[in-house]
Amino acid sequence: MKKIIKLNVNDIDYEIAVDHHALLIDVIRNSLRLTGTKKSCGEGDCCSCTVLIDNKPVLSCITLAAACEGKKITTIEGMENKDGTLHPIQQAFIDKGAVQCGFCTPGMVLATKALLDRNPNPTRDEIKKGLSGNLCRCTGYIKISDAVEHAAKLLQTR
Amino acid sequence: MYLQQFQYESPETVGDLSLLLSKYKERARILAGGTDIIPNMLNKLYKAGYLIDISGIKTLSGIEYKKGKGLTIGAATKLDDIEYSDLIKDKYFALYQSVKEVGSPQIRAMATLGGNTCNASPAADTPPALVALGAGVVIVSRKGRREMLLEDFILGNRVTDLKPDEYLESFQIPDVQPGSAGRFGLITLRKAVEIDIASIAVNLAIDPKTKKTEDIKIVLGSVAPVPLRVKKAESILIGQKPDDAIIEKAAKECADESKPIDDIRASAAYRRHVVSVLAKRTLNETINAVK
Protein backbone atom coordinates (compact mmCIF):
# COMPACT_ATOMS: atom_id res chain seq x y z
CA MET A 1 0.00 0.00 0.00
CA LYS A 2 1.24 3.47 -0.78
CA LYS A 3 0.69 6.77 0.94
CA ILE A 4 1.44 10.22 -0.45
CA ILE A 5 3.34 12.15 2.19
CA LYS A 6 4.93 15.55 2.48
CA LEU A 7 8.46 15.36 3.79
CA ASN A 8 10.43 18.43 4.78
CA VAL A 9 14.10 17.60 4.30
CA ASN A 10 16.80 20.23 4.76
CA ASP A 11 14.19 22.98 4.47
CA ILE A 12 12.77 21.70 1.20
CA ASP A 13 9.25 20.22 0.90
CA TYR A 14 8.95 17.01 -1.07
CA GLU A 15 5.68 15.30 -1.96
CA ILE A 16 6.32 11.59 -2.55
CA ALA A 17 4.47 8.32 -2.64
CA VAL A 18 5.95 5.86 -0.17
CA ASP A 19 5.08 2.30 0.77
CA HIS A 20 3.51 2.09 4.23
CA HIS A 21 6.43 -0.15 5.25
CA ALA A 22 9.18 2.02 3.72
CA LEU A 23 12.04 2.98 6.02
CA LEU A 24 13.04 6.64 6.19
CA ILE A 25 16.64 5.86 5.25
CA ASP A 26 15.60 4.11 2.05
CA VAL A 27 13.33 7.00 1.05
CA ILE A 28 16.11 9.53 1.78
CA ARG A 29 18.75 7.59 -0.12
CA ASN A 30 16.76 6.04 -2.98
CA SER A 31 13.82 8.37 -3.62
CA LEU A 32 15.41 11.68 -2.68
CA ARG A 33 18.92 10.56 -3.76
CA LEU A 34 20.46 12.11 -0.63
CA THR A 35 23.12 9.46 -0.16
CA GLY A 36 25.09 11.18 2.59
CA THR A 37 23.10 9.24 5.20
CA LYS A 38 24.64 5.78 5.52
CA LYS A 39 23.00 2.41 6.22
CA SER A 40 25.52 0.25 8.05
CA CYS A 41 23.93 -2.22 10.51
CA GLY A 42 20.39 -1.49 9.35
CA GLU A 43 18.96 -2.42 12.74
CA GLY A 44 19.43 0.60 15.02
CA ASP A 45 22.71 -0.36 16.68
CA CYS A 46 25.53 1.59 14.97
CA CYS A 47 23.95 5.07 14.55
CA SER A 48 25.57 5.62 11.09
CA CYS A 49 22.06 6.40 9.84
CA THR A 50 21.55 9.26 12.31
CA VAL A 51 19.44 12.13 11.00
CA LEU A 52 17.86 15.00 12.95
CA ILE A 53 14.07 15.07 13.21
CA ASP A 54 12.88 18.33 14.75
CA ASN A 55 16.50 18.80 15.86
CA LYS A 56 16.60 15.52 17.81
CA PRO A 57 19.02 12.76 16.70
CA VAL A 58 17.15 9.66 15.51
CA LEU A 59 17.90 6.47 13.60
CA SER A 60 16.53 6.60 10.06
CA CYS A 61 17.07 2.87 9.47
CA ILE A 62 14.37 1.99 12.02
CA THR A 63 12.04 4.93 11.37
CA LEU A 64 9.08 4.62 9.02
CA ALA A 65 8.95 7.30 6.33
CA ALA A 66 5.17 7.46 6.74
CA ALA A 67 5.66 8.48 10.37
CA CYS A 68 7.66 11.57 9.39
CA GLU A 69 4.99 13.71 7.80
CA GLY A 70 5.00 17.30 9.05
CA LYS A 71 8.39 16.92 10.73
CA LYS A 72 11.60 18.81 10.01
CA ILE A 73 14.25 16.37 8.83
CA THR A 74 17.92 17.35 8.62
CA THR A 75 20.42 15.10 6.87
CA ILE A 76 24.18 15.62 6.58
CA GLU A 77 23.57 17.43 3.30
CA GLY A 78 21.66 20.04 5.29
CA MET A 79 24.58 20.89 7.54
CA GLU A 80 26.53 23.05 5.10
CA ASN A 81 25.98 26.80 5.04
CA LYS A 82 23.83 28.40 2.35
CA ASP A 83 26.99 29.57 0.51
CA GLY A 84 28.30 25.98 0.35
CA THR A 85 30.96 26.38 3.03
CA LEU A 86 31.10 23.74 5.70
CA HIS A 87 29.36 23.93 9.07
CA PRO A 88 31.92 24.50 11.86
CA ILE A 89 31.31 20.94 13.12
CA GLN A 90 32.18 19.52 9.68
CA GLN A 91 35.25 21.77 9.45
CA ALA A 92 36.36 20.72 12.96
CA PHE A 93 36.19 17.02 11.97
CA ILE A 94 38.46 17.72 9.00
CA ASP A 95 40.83 20.00 10.95
CA LYS A 96 41.33 17.41 13.70
CA GLY A 97 41.83 14.41 11.39
CA ALA A 98 38.67 12.75 12.70
CA VAL A 99 37.69 11.25 9.32
CA GLN A 100 39.25 8.05 7.94
CA CYS A 101 36.90 6.00 5.78
CA GLY A 102 34.19 8.55 6.46
CA PHE A 103 31.31 6.09 6.77
CA CYS A 104 30.45 6.92 10.39
CA THR A 105 31.11 10.63 9.87
CA PRO A 106 27.67 11.89 8.79
CA GLY A 107 26.11 10.20 11.85
CA MET A 108 28.86 11.54 14.10
CA VAL A 109 28.43 15.10 12.78
CA LEU A 110 24.66 15.06 13.30
CA ALA A 111 24.97 13.50 16.77
CA THR A 112 27.48 16.26 17.54
CA LYS A 113 25.04 18.92 16.34
CA ALA A 114 22.36 17.53 18.63
CA LEU A 115 24.80 17.36 21.55
CA LEU A 116 26.11 20.91 21.15
CA ASP A 117 22.61 22.32 20.66
CA ARG A 118 21.70 20.91 24.05
CA ASN A 119 25.05 21.39 25.79
CA PRO A 120 27.25 24.03 24.08
CA ASN A 121 30.23 23.40 26.37
CA PRO A 122 30.47 19.68 27.07
CA THR A 123 33.22 18.02 29.09
CA ARG A 124 35.19 15.21 27.48
CA ASP A 125 33.02 12.72 29.37
CA GLU A 126 29.82 14.42 28.20
CA ILE A 127 31.11 14.27 24.62
CA LYS A 128 31.71 10.53 24.92
CA LYS A 129 28.22 10.06 26.38
CA GLY A 130 26.62 12.28 23.74
CA LEU A 131 28.16 10.24 20.93
CA SER A 132 27.99 6.92 22.81
CA GLY A 133 25.70 5.36 20.20
CA ASN A 134 27.86 6.15 17.18
CA LEU A 135 30.31 3.39 16.28
CA CYS A 136 33.57 3.99 14.39
CA ARG A 137 35.76 1.13 13.19
CA CYS A 138 38.64 3.26 11.98
CA THR A 139 39.69 6.11 14.24
CA GLY A 140 39.63 4.87 17.83
CA TYR A 141 37.38 7.84 18.69
CA ILE A 142 40.05 10.13 20.23
CA LYS A 143 40.26 12.49 17.27
CA ILE A 144 36.48 12.51 17.02
CA SER A 145 36.25 13.74 20.65
CA ASP A 146 38.99 16.30 19.83
CA ALA A 147 36.89 17.47 16.87
CA VAL A 148 33.78 17.89 19.01
CA GLU A 149 35.75 19.91 21.59
CA HIS A 150 37.14 22.06 18.81
CA ALA A 151 33.70 22.48 17.21
CA ALA A 152 32.28 23.62 20.55
CA LYS A 153 34.95 26.33 20.72
CA LEU A 154 34.37 27.38 17.09
CA LEU A 155 30.62 27.65 17.68
CA GLN A 156 31.02 29.69 20.84
CA THR A 157 33.19 32.27 19.12
CA ARG A 158 30.87 32.46 16.07
CA MET B 1 17.19 -5.09 5.54
CA TYR B 2 13.62 -4.39 4.55
CA LEU B 3 10.24 -4.73 6.22
CA GLN B 4 7.44 -6.97 5.01
CA GLN B 5 4.25 -5.17 3.99
CA PHE B 6 1.77 -3.92 6.53
CA GLN B 7 -0.87 -1.19 6.67
CA TYR B 8 0.17 1.91 8.59
CA GLU B 9 -2.43 3.75 10.65
CA SER B 10 -1.87 6.94 12.62
CA PRO B 11 -4.87 7.77 14.81
CA GLU B 12 -4.98 11.26 16.28
CA THR B 13 -7.18 10.50 19.27
CA VAL B 14 -7.39 7.73 21.86
CA GLY B 15 -10.95 7.07 20.68
CA ASP B 16 -9.68 6.27 17.17
CA LEU B 17 -6.90 4.16 18.69
CA SER B 18 -9.41 2.06 20.66
CA LEU B 19 -11.55 1.61 17.55
CA LEU B 20 -8.61 0.40 15.49
CA LEU B 21 -7.48 -1.99 18.22
CA SER B 22 -10.93 -3.51 18.65
CA LYS B 23 -11.17 -3.85 14.86
CA TYR B 24 -7.78 -5.46 14.19
CA LYS B 25 -6.93 -7.07 17.60
CA GLU B 26 -4.12 -9.65 17.21
CA ARG B 27 -3.39 -8.60 13.62
CA ALA B 28 -2.16 -5.19 14.80
CA ARG B 29 0.79 -3.95 16.82
CA ILE B 30 1.12 -0.57 18.46
CA LEU B 31 4.04 1.54 17.21
CA ALA B 32 5.40 4.11 19.66
CA GLY B 33 9.14 4.80 19.28
CA GLY B 34 9.74 1.73 17.15
CA THR B 35 13.14 0.94 18.64
CA ASP B 36 12.09 -2.59 19.63
CA ILE B 37 9.32 -3.25 17.16
CA ILE B 38 11.01 -2.21 13.91
CA PRO B 39 14.29 -4.15 14.46
CA ASN B 40 12.24 -7.19 15.53
CA MET B 41 10.07 -6.92 12.41
CA LEU B 42 13.20 -6.51 10.27
CA ASN B 43 14.58 -9.82 11.55
CA LYS B 44 11.10 -11.39 11.37
CA LEU B 45 10.81 -12.04 15.11
CA TYR B 46 7.58 -10.00 15.17
CA LYS B 47 4.90 -9.85 12.50
CA ALA B 48 2.06 -7.37 12.05
CA GLY B 49 -0.57 -6.85 9.40
CA TYR B 50 -1.36 -3.41 10.80
CA LEU B 51 0.97 -1.01 12.59
CA ILE B 52 -0.86 1.62 14.66
CA ASP B 53 1.36 4.63 15.25
CA ILE B 54 0.39 6.38 18.50
CA SER B 55 3.02 9.12 18.34
CA GLY B 56 0.43 11.60 17.06
CA ILE B 57 -1.80 11.27 20.12
CA LYS B 58 -0.65 14.11 22.35
CA THR B 59 -2.57 12.97 25.43
CA LEU B 60 -0.51 9.78 25.66
CA SER B 61 2.71 11.56 26.52
CA GLY B 62 3.64 13.93 29.31
CA ILE B 63 5.06 14.08 32.81
CA GLU B 64 2.79 15.41 35.56
CA TYR B 65 3.49 15.57 39.29
CA LYS B 66 0.91 16.41 41.95
CA LYS B 67 1.89 16.62 45.59
CA GLY B 68 0.05 13.89 47.48
CA LYS B 69 -0.93 12.05 44.32
CA GLY B 70 2.50 11.45 42.79
CA LEU B 71 3.74 11.14 39.23
CA THR B 72 1.78 10.39 36.06
CA ILE B 73 3.85 9.57 32.97
CA GLY B 74 2.10 9.02 29.65
CA ALA B 75 3.02 5.68 28.07
CA ALA B 76 4.24 7.38 24.88
CA THR B 77 6.59 9.73 26.74
CA LYS B 78 10.04 9.68 25.12
CA LEU B 79 12.87 8.41 27.29
CA ASP B 80 14.97 11.52 26.65
CA ASP B 81 12.16 13.73 27.96
CA ILE B 82 12.35 11.71 31.17
CA GLU B 83 16.18 11.80 31.13
CA TYR B 84 16.20 15.61 30.98
CA SER B 85 13.31 16.20 33.39
CA ASP B 86 14.58 18.14 36.42
CA LEU B 87 11.53 16.99 38.38
CA ILE B 88 12.24 13.30 37.83
CA LYS B 89 15.98 13.68 38.52
CA ASP B 90 15.12 15.47 41.74
CA LYS B 91 12.27 13.32 43.10
CA TYR B 92 12.57 9.93 41.34
CA PHE B 93 16.32 9.51 40.89
CA ALA B 94 16.15 5.72 40.43
CA LEU B 95 13.89 6.20 37.40
CA TYR B 96 16.29 8.81 35.96
CA GLN B 97 19.21 6.41 36.50
CA SER B 98 17.42 3.56 34.72
CA VAL B 99 16.25 5.68 31.77
CA LYS B 100 19.65 7.19 31.01
CA GLU B 101 21.13 3.69 30.61
CA VAL B 102 18.86 2.67 27.74
CA GLY B 103 20.57 2.26 24.37
CA SER B 104 22.09 5.42 22.97
CA PRO B 105 21.11 9.12 22.82
CA GLN B 106 19.42 8.37 19.49
CA ILE B 107 17.46 5.45 20.90
CA ARG B 108 16.38 7.53 23.90
CA ALA B 109 15.14 10.24 21.52
CA MET B 110 12.81 7.71 19.90
CA ALA B 111 11.94 5.11 22.55
CA THR B 112 9.08 5.42 25.02
CA LEU B 113 8.58 4.36 28.63
CA GLY B 114 5.46 2.39 27.68
CA GLY B 115 7.29 0.60 24.90
CA ASN B 116 10.09 -0.48 27.24
CA THR B 117 7.47 -2.08 29.53
CA CYS B 118 5.19 -3.55 26.85
CA ASN B 119 8.09 -5.12 24.94
CA ALA B 120 8.84 -6.80 28.30
CA SER B 121 12.36 -7.94 27.62
CA PRO B 122 13.67 -9.54 30.84
CA ALA B 123 16.70 -7.24 30.51
CA ALA B 124 14.74 -4.00 30.15
CA ASP B 125 16.19 -1.21 32.30
CA THR B 126 13.13 0.78 33.34
CA PRO B 127 10.75 -1.91 34.72
CA PRO B 128 12.84 -2.77 37.83
CA ALA B 129 13.06 0.91 38.78
CA LEU B 130 9.36 1.45 38.13
CA VAL B 131 8.39 -1.63 40.17
CA ALA B 132 10.62 -0.53 43.06
CA LEU B 133 8.88 2.87 43.01
CA GLY B 134 5.51 1.12 43.31
CA ALA B 135 4.37 2.01 39.80
CA GLY B 136 0.90 1.15 38.57
CA VAL B 137 -0.28 1.01 34.98
CA VAL B 138 -3.53 2.29 33.47
CA ILE B 139 -4.85 0.12 30.63
CA VAL B 140 -7.65 1.25 28.31
CA SER B 141 -9.87 -0.28 25.64
CA ARG B 142 -13.30 0.39 24.16
CA LYS B 143 -14.67 -1.68 27.04
CA GLY B 144 -13.25 0.68 29.69
CA ARG B 145 -10.26 1.29 31.93
CA ARG B 146 -8.43 -0.89 34.40
CA GLU B 147 -5.48 -0.35 36.71
CA MET B 148 -2.96 -2.77 38.14
CA LEU B 149 0.52 -2.80 39.63
CA LEU B 150 3.31 -2.91 37.03
CA GLU B 151 4.71 -5.77 39.10
CA ASP B 152 1.66 -7.86 38.12
CA PHE B 153 1.44 -6.54 34.55
CA ILE B 154 4.69 -8.04 33.24
CA LEU B 155 4.04 -11.77 33.08
CA GLY B 156 7.02 -13.34 31.34
CA ASN B 157 9.65 -13.04 28.63
CA ARG B 158 8.04 -10.54 26.23
CA VAL B 159 4.58 -11.22 27.71
CA THR B 160 2.35 -8.70 29.46
CA ASP B 161 -1.26 -8.71 30.58
CA LEU B 162 -2.22 -6.39 27.71
CA LYS B 163 -5.12 -7.87 25.74
CA PRO B 164 -5.20 -7.49 21.90
CA ASP B 165 -7.79 -4.69 22.03
CA GLU B 166 -6.08 -2.74 24.84
CA TYR B 167 -3.40 -0.07 25.03
CA LEU B 168 -1.23 1.12 27.88
CA GLU B 169 -2.22 4.70 28.71
CA SER B 170 0.06 5.77 31.54
CA PHE B 171 2.19 4.93 34.55
CA GLN B 172 1.12 6.12 38.02
CA ILE B 173 3.92 6.39 40.57
CA PRO B 174 3.11 7.16 44.22
CA ASP B 175 4.38 10.36 45.78
CA VAL B 176 7.80 10.30 47.40
CA GLN B 177 7.69 9.42 51.11
CA PRO B 178 9.69 11.66 53.42
CA GLY B 179 12.84 9.92 54.63
CA SER B 180 13.03 7.73 51.53
CA ALA B 181 15.40 7.26 48.61
CA GLY B 182 15.66 5.10 45.52
CA ARG B 183 18.65 3.96 43.48
CA PHE B 184 19.23 1.86 40.36
CA GLY B 185 22.42 -0.05 39.57
CA LEU B 186 23.55 -2.28 36.75
CA ILE B 187 26.40 -4.42 35.45
CA THR B 188 27.19 -4.35 31.75
CA LEU B 189 30.08 -5.29 29.49
CA ARG B 190 29.91 -2.04 27.47
CA LYS B 191 28.97 1.44 28.65
CA ALA B 192 26.26 2.06 26.02
CA VAL B 193 24.06 0.23 23.53
CA GLU B 194 24.23 -2.76 25.81
CA ILE B 195 21.98 -5.35 27.39
CA ASP B 196 22.41 -5.64 31.17
CA ILE B 197 24.00 -8.72 32.71
CA ALA B 198 22.19 -7.85 35.93
CA SER B 199 20.39 -4.84 37.34
CA ILE B 200 18.79 -3.83 40.61
CA ALA B 201 16.45 -1.13 41.87
CA VAL B 202 16.07 -0.32 45.56
CA ASN B 203 13.53 2.03 47.11
CA LEU B 204 13.40 2.37 50.88
CA ALA B 205 12.24 4.62 53.70
CA ILE B 206 14.02 4.98 57.04
CA ASP B 207 12.27 6.24 60.17
CA PRO B 208 14.18 9.40 61.17
CA LYS B 209 13.81 8.73 64.91
CA THR B 210 14.39 4.99 65.22
CA LYS B 211 16.68 4.77 62.15
CA LYS B 212 14.90 1.51 61.28
CA THR B 213 13.89 0.64 57.71
CA GLU B 214 10.12 1.03 57.59
CA ASP B 215 9.47 0.38 53.90
CA ILE B 216 11.55 -1.28 51.21
CA LYS B 217 11.33 -2.73 47.73
CA ILE B 218 14.23 -4.58 46.09
CA VAL B 219 13.78 -5.51 42.42
CA LEU B 220 16.27 -7.41 40.26
CA GLY B 221 16.43 -7.19 36.46
CA SER B 222 17.95 -9.48 33.81
CA VAL B 223 18.15 -12.47 36.18
CA ALA B 224 14.62 -13.79 35.76
CA PRO B 225 11.95 -13.73 33.02
CA VAL B 226 10.32 -10.72 34.75
CA PRO B 227 11.47 -7.95 37.15
CA LEU B 228 12.06 -9.95 40.31
CA ARG B 229 10.95 -8.56 43.68
CA VAL B 230 13.13 -10.16 46.31
CA LYS B 231 10.67 -10.16 49.23
CA LYS B 232 12.90 -12.42 51.33
CA ALA B 233 15.71 -9.85 51.14
CA GLU B 234 13.26 -7.05 51.91
CA SER B 235 12.08 -8.87 55.07
CA ILE B 236 15.69 -9.12 56.28
CA LEU B 237 15.96 -5.33 56.24
CA ILE B 238 12.50 -4.26 57.33
CA GLY B 239 12.13 -3.11 60.93
CA GLN B 240 15.91 -3.21 61.40
CA LYS B 241 18.63 -0.58 61.55
CA PRO B 242 20.63 -1.28 58.38
CA ASP B 243 24.21 -2.34 59.22
CA ASP B 244 26.92 -4.14 57.25
CA ALA B 245 25.91 -7.59 58.49
CA ILE B 246 22.24 -7.11 57.59
CA ILE B 247 23.10 -5.66 54.17
CA GLU B 248 25.47 -8.57 53.49
CA LYS B 249 22.74 -11.04 54.42
CA ALA B 250 20.16 -9.29 52.20
CA ALA B 251 22.60 -9.14 49.29
CA LYS B 252 23.27 -12.88 49.57
CA GLU B 253 19.50 -13.49 49.62
CA CYS B 254 19.17 -11.50 46.39
CA ALA B 255 21.79 -13.72 44.76
CA ASP B 256 20.09 -16.90 46.04
CA GLU B 257 16.66 -15.79 44.79
CA SER B 258 17.86 -14.78 41.34
CA LYS B 259 17.18 -17.14 38.43
CA PRO B 260 19.80 -16.19 35.82
CA ILE B 261 20.59 -18.04 32.61
CA ASP B 262 23.80 -18.75 30.70
CA ASP B 263 23.98 -16.68 27.56
CA ILE B 264 26.41 -14.92 25.24
CA ARG B 265 26.96 -12.07 27.69
CA ALA B 266 27.61 -13.97 30.93
CA SER B 267 27.20 -17.29 32.70
CA ALA B 268 24.43 -17.89 35.23
CA ALA B 269 27.10 -18.43 37.92
CA TYR B 270 28.74 -15.08 37.23
CA ARG B 271 25.38 -13.32 37.22
CA ARG B 272 24.41 -14.88 40.52
CA HIS B 273 27.70 -13.75 42.07
CA VAL B 274 27.51 -10.27 40.61
CA VAL B 275 23.94 -9.81 41.92
CA SER B 276 25.24 -10.03 45.49
CA VAL B 277 27.94 -7.42 44.76
CA LEU B 278 25.47 -5.15 43.00
CA ALA B 279 22.86 -5.56 45.74
CA LYS B 280 25.34 -4.66 48.49
CA ARG B 281 26.60 -1.63 46.54
CA THR B 282 23.13 -0.35 45.64
CA LEU B 283 21.66 -0.94 49.12
CA ASN B 284 24.49 1.10 50.62
CA GLU B 285 24.06 3.86 48.03
CA THR B 286 20.33 4.04 48.71
CA ILE B 287 20.70 4.09 52.48
CA ASN B 288 23.30 6.86 52.23
CA ALA B 289 20.99 8.83 49.94
CA VAL B 290 18.18 9.02 52.51
CA LYS B 291 17.96 12.58 53.75
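qc> The interface with chain A takes residues 1-8, 10, 31, 34-35, 38-39, 42-43, 51, 53, 55, 80, 84, 103-107, 109-110, 191-193 of chain B (CB under 8 Å).
qc> done
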